[in-house]
């Protein structure tokens, strides 16, 4: 037995078309409440001259912002659930999460702790074949193996996160049960159905790739304007693979002395990091990808809420595990 994801997505689009205000208005307000608001601390911190005070303020703002975004995200999931059920939610639903803020935060901390434990366990398991292979294989064969392990670990962690993806809807339906109960029930509800949920999530990959393409075009334009490609052209083509490897090592914290970088290479890395990580590039990227965000975010969330309701219905009907 399986859930018809095409019908699920059709119903999601139909439900989105009935919302008042329109779904894209709700998504825009959600964007302003999260991504838009996240730029404010960046405007405050540069005015602090004391480095210790700037670090403290930055850390405090990051923690506060993370908790705030978690609650607003839950509120958006609640809007999606009500939209899927044709309950005509309004903009006020984006504030509903604050009424159960403590339970939402505990739920997210429980999910984060479980994912971290699984990630550490999987990483430890992956280290042994990697160490063994490093003793037998040369570097040319070792690099593809490392890449495959990274991809495999990422896929495994994503599969694990699917276990907890229905927890917000369960908490929304039964807030008195608490966040821990929502997480445990999500694990039970997705047992044997993670492949169906994965297929639903993967069906949106085209929209995600479009967003990534637009973001990449913005980055290329910003680098071109900053003169990055003109500087890069001064390096021989044969040095580019080594240059790319050194950049990742440099970004991880390795010193220029340890890597043996020239001043030109170091300047190139600093230029790329300043442009790619700059506030201006981030703002422009968000603006260019905003149309995709306004469509994809509610579309995916309402479809997932529909999957949750379909899974509940099948559970009540006594559907067997896949």
Q: Would you give an account of this structure?
A:
This protein has helices at residues 5-17, 23-38, 40-44, 51-84, 101-136, 139-162, 167-173, 179-190, 194-202, 205-225, 228-232, 240-251, 256-259, 263-276, 279-316. The chain is an all-alpha fold and 322 residues long. The protein has one domain. Helix 1 (5-17) crosses helix 15 and helix 5 runs antiparallel to helix 6. It is globular, with a radius of gyration of 23 Å. The mean pLDDT is 87.
Low confidence ranges: none
* Count of DSSP H/I helices: 15
- Counting DSSP E segments of at least 2 residues, the number of strands comes to 0
Task: Please give the domain count.
Answer: 1
Q: Major beta sheet, specifics?
A: none
User: Roughly what fraction of the amino acids lie in strands?
Assistant: under 5%
Gross geometry: globular
Helix content: over 70%
Report how far the terminal alpha carbons are from each other: 7 Å
Mean pLDDT: 87
Helix-strand sequence: HHHHHHHHHHHHHHH
Helices and strands: which structural class? mainly alpha
C-alpha Rg (nearest Å): 23 Å
């Amino acid at each position: 037995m399986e859930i018809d994801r095409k019908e699920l997505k059709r119903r999601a689009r139909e439900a989105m078309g009935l919302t008042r205000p329109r779904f894209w208005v709700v998504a825009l307000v959600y964007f302003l409440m999260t991504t838009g608001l996240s730029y404010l601390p960046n405007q405050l911190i540069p005015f602090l001259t004391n480095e210790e005070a700037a670090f403290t303020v930055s850390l405090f703002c990051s923690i506060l912002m993370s908790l705030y975004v978690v609650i607003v995200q839950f509120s958006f999931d609640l809007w999606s659930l009500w939209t899927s059920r044709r309950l005509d939610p309004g903009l006020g639903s984006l504030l509903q999460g604050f009424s159960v803020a403590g339970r939402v935060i505990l739920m997210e901390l429980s999910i984060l702790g479980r994912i971290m434990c699984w990630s550490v366990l999987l990483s430890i398991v992956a280290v042994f074949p990697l160490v063994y292979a490093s003793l037998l294989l040369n570097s040319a064969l070792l690099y593809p193996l490392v890449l495959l392990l990274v991809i495999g670990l990422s896929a495994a962690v994503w599969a694990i996160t699917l276990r907890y993806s229905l927890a917000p809807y369960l908490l929304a339906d039964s807030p008195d049960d608490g966040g821990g109960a929502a997480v445990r029930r999500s694990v039970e509800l997705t047992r044997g159905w993670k492949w169906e949920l994965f297929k639903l999530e993967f069906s949106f990959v085209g929209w995600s790739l479009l967003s990534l393409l637009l973001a990449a075009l913005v980055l290329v334009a910003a680098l071109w304007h900053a003169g990055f490609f003109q500087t890069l052209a001064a390096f021989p083509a044969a040095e580019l693979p080594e240059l790319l490897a050194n950049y990742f090592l440099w970004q991880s914290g390795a010193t220029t002395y340890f890597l043996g970088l020239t001043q030109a290479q170091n300047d190139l890395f600093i230029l790329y990091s300043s442009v790619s990580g700059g506030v201006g590039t981030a703002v422009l990227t968000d603006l260019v990808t905003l149309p995709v965000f306004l469509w994809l975010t509610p579309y995916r969330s309402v479809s997932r809420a529909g999957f949750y309701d379909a899974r509940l219905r099948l559970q009540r009907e006594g559907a067997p595990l896949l």
